Amino acid sequence: MDVDAYSYTHRRSWDRLDYLARRRSLSGAEADELVALYRRTSQQLARLQSHSPDPELIAGLSALLARARGKVLGTKADTWAEIGRFCTHRFPAAVYRAWPWWVSVAAVFLVVSGGLAVWVQGSGAAHNLLGLPDNTDALTEPGGKFETYYSEHPQGAFAAQVWTNNAWVSAIALFTGVLILPAVYLLFMNALNVGVSAGLMAEAGRLDSFFGFILPHGMLELTAVFVAGGAGLKLGWTLIDPGRASRLEAVARQGRATAVIALGLVGVLLVSGFLEGFVTPSPLPASARIAIGFVAEVLFLVYVFGAGRRAALEQEVVVVGNPAEDRWQTTPSTR
């Protein structure tokens, strides 16, 4: 089966089903049409899942059928259940599918920032080229600007400011990724800032302070930026190489996945902002602050590669239904 051709052929009936499922009230003829389309689309979904399914297409049709089924049964969608499904399935699955992209972004980012840190440390040429002052004591000394940045504002206001700023940076990385170069530039500038700060602190013999203030919130914060950058670049690459689907359809499909990641990262960055506002400047020992940040990072990675992987695999399960009795069962795909 040519999945793309099959999808194109039935797209109009799926759009009609979506229209009927979203209407507040239906006539008798429209209600009969809704039921017929629902049953037909259920069979089509099962057929698609058994022939090299596209996870995003399967997820979209599954969501459409969930709305239509609620309309057929005369029930309203449970908002909290939808939110729960987003948190346990849609968001982690979308991040998991994009992992080769954001892990690659993370690796390049760390190499670039590490290389810049080594170059800046004790290099007059680096200072001249980057416009750095010869005397950086005001930044690097104990109680200097690097340290007081995290404590000069009230914790609650600072956490909110950090959250807003990081959400903005991640949104730019996500949605300028379709153009590729703006996202690459944004990621490079962030790597430059981290690398220069690390190099200057190392030059002053205060690398322990650098990690003590960066790692508690930075592990999760940078991971969110990596996910945003990777998802954005994946969206941009889809525009260049849409695969077997049409360019418009492929970009629209990946754009929906990118929007899911963008919405989910709001929560991740909220946690990161809380860590930066309340944990990083706290009087706790550096080891304790870093341990808290490490636990947050590990929990996120377990969430993505555990729950996200399971949710992604669930979309490759063949759904076998009896439309007449409206009973469902699932069996593993045999492909």
By DSSP, the count of extended strands is 2
Termini distance?
13 Å
Secondary-structure element series: HHHHHHHHHHHHHEE
What does the average pLDDT come to? 85
Which radius of gyration do the C-alpha atoms yield?
24 Å
Instruction: Give the low-pLDDT segments.
Output: 318-335
| Biggest sheet features | 2 strands, antiparallel
How much of the sequence lies in strands comes to under 5%
Q: Helix- and strand-based class?
A: mainly alpha
Helix content: over 70%
Tally the helices: 13
Query: Going across the major beta sheet, what is the strand order?
Result: 1-2
The best one-word shape is: elongated
Structure notes:
This protein is an all-alpha fold. 77% of the residues lie in helices and 3% in strands. The chain contains 13 helices and two strands; from the N terminus they run H-H-H-H-H-H-H-H-H-H-H-H-H-E-E. It has helices spanning 3-22, 28-49, 55-73, 79-97, 99-120, 124-130, 137-140, 145-148, 155-175, 181-203, 207-240, 247-279, 286-314, and strands at residues 318-322, 327-331. A two-stranded antiparallel sheet has the order 1-2. Helix 1 (3-22) runs antiparallel to helix 2 (28-49), helix 2 (28-49) runs antiparallel to helix 3 (55-73) and helix 9 (155-175) runs antiparallel to helix 12.
